[in-house]
Amino acid sequence: MTSISTQDYTIHFNETGYKALNEHLKAVRYSKVFILADENTNMDCVPFVLGNIDTEIEYDILEIEPGEEQKNLDICLGLWETLSEYGADRKSVIINIGGGVITDLGGFVASTYKRGIPFINIPTSLLAMVDASIGGKTGVDLGHLKNQIGVINTPELIVVDTSFLATLPQLEMRSGLAEMLKHGLIFDEDYWNRLQDLSASTLADLDGLIYESIIIKKNIVAQDPTEQGVRKTLNYGHTIGHAIESYFLEHSEYKRLLHGEAIAIGMIMETYLSIKYLDFSAEEGKKIKSVFKSIYGHVTILDSDQAPIIELLKYDKKNEHGNINFVLLEAIGKPKVNCIVDNNSIIEAFEFYN
Questions:
Q1: pLDDT for 29
Q2: Predicted pLDDT at 317
Q3: Residue 231 appears among annotated catalytic residues
Q4: What mean pLDDT comes out for the span 177-204?
Q5: How confident is the model over 223-255, as pLDDT tens digits?
Q6: Are 274 and 153 within one domain?
Q7: The pTM is what?
Q8: 180 with 152, same domain?
C-alpha cells in the first residue's frame, strides 16, 4: 500500500513502515526512545517492532495495564514522573504501540511533557488504525467522561502494520469496524455497501478497506484540522454513543461496552433523529439499524437508564453555547453538523433502537 502523506506527517504501511521508521530514527537522532505499550501489546507486538527497528539509540519500555480505565490523569502523572526519572529530555521520542487508549494517552503524555516532545504511533487495533491514531487528537478521560482533557497535536509518523490484527479478539475487530461503517455513512455510500458483509473478504480485501477508511479520515481532517466544521462529521453516532459508553463504564453492574459497540448504538439512534429532523429515508434507516444489529446484536438499555444517559450529553465536546450539537444525515454520504434536538426525540430514538 502506498504511503499517505498529510500536511504534517506520513502514514506508512507494513514493511514500508519499518523502513520509513528506521530512516526517521537515523535522520533525527533522538537522545532516547521510550516505548509505551499495555501488557498485551508489550507481549504480542513490541518484540516484533523491536525486531524491525535498526537503531543504536537507547530505549526503555513503559508498560501500563490494558483498558479504557487506564486513560486518566493519574496514569499520565505516573508516566510523566517515569519519563523524568529516566532522563527524558526534549530530544526524546515516545513510540506508542497499541490501540486507541495507548495512542490517545501516549500522544497526550508526549504533547505535555516538557511542553511537548515528539511521538510516533504504531496502532495495533483496527480502531486505532482507521481512527484513533490518525488526525492528531490526543487525550484522556475525566472520570468516566470520554476524552474531556486533551490537545490536538500530530505525530512524527504513523506505521500501520495490519499483521497485528491477527492478535486481536473478534470483539475488538468488531469495535474497529464500527468506525469504518461510520466513514461509509458520512462520506461514501458505495463504501458503506461494501462493508455490510465481509464474510467472503480476504486479508487483502480487508487491507484495502482499511486503506480506504484512512484516506476518508485523512481527507476530512485535512479540511478542518481543529474541528471547527467538517471534521465534526466524524462524530456521527458519538454524541449518544459516548454518553452510553461513559454510562456503562460508570456502572459496574453492566458489562463494559467497547467503543465501537457503543458507537454502533449511537449511530442507530442518530439515524432515527436524522429521519425525524432531516427527512432521512425511513426505509434506509431501518436497513441501517438492521445492519448494525446483525453485527453487534442488542444491548439492553432500561427505561431507567435513559434519563442519566441523556444528562451525560451535556459533556459532549461539540456542544456550544449550552446547546447539544448532533451530527445527523440528510442522506448517506451527506452529513449535517450542529443539529439541535429535544430530549423527547432522544427518548424516541431509544425506542427505535429497542
A1: 92
A2: 65
A3: yes
A4: 90
A5: 999 999 999 999 999 999 999 999 999 988 888
A6: no
A7: 0.93
A8: no
Provide the pLDDT confidence category of residue 262 given band limits of 50, 70 and 90.
Answer: very high
Among the options 68, 156, 179, 245, which is catalytic?
Answer: 179
Residue 194 is among the residues annotated as catalytic for this protein: no
Of 168, 188, 221, which one is at a domain's C-terminal end?
168
Is 115 considered catalytic here?
A: yes
Assign 202 a pLDDT band (cuts: 50, 70, 90).
confident
In the annotation, is 298 catalytic? no
CA–CA distances in Å: residue 157 to residues 28, 37, 105, 267, 292: 12, 17, 16, 31, 33
Number of domains observed in the structure of the chain = 2
330 is catalytic: no
Domain shared by 231 and 278, yes or no: yes
162 & 188 share domain? no
pLDDT of residue 142: 93
Active site residue 238: yes
Annotated catalytic residue within 12, 144, 182, 259: 259
Q: Which one is catalytic: 68, 227, 245, 270?
A: 227
Task: Give me the catalytic one of 12, 24, 137, 144.
Answer: 137
**Least confident span in 8-12, 87-91, 210-214, 249-253:** 249-253
Residue 137 is among the residues annotated as catalytic for this protein = yes
90 assigned to active site: no
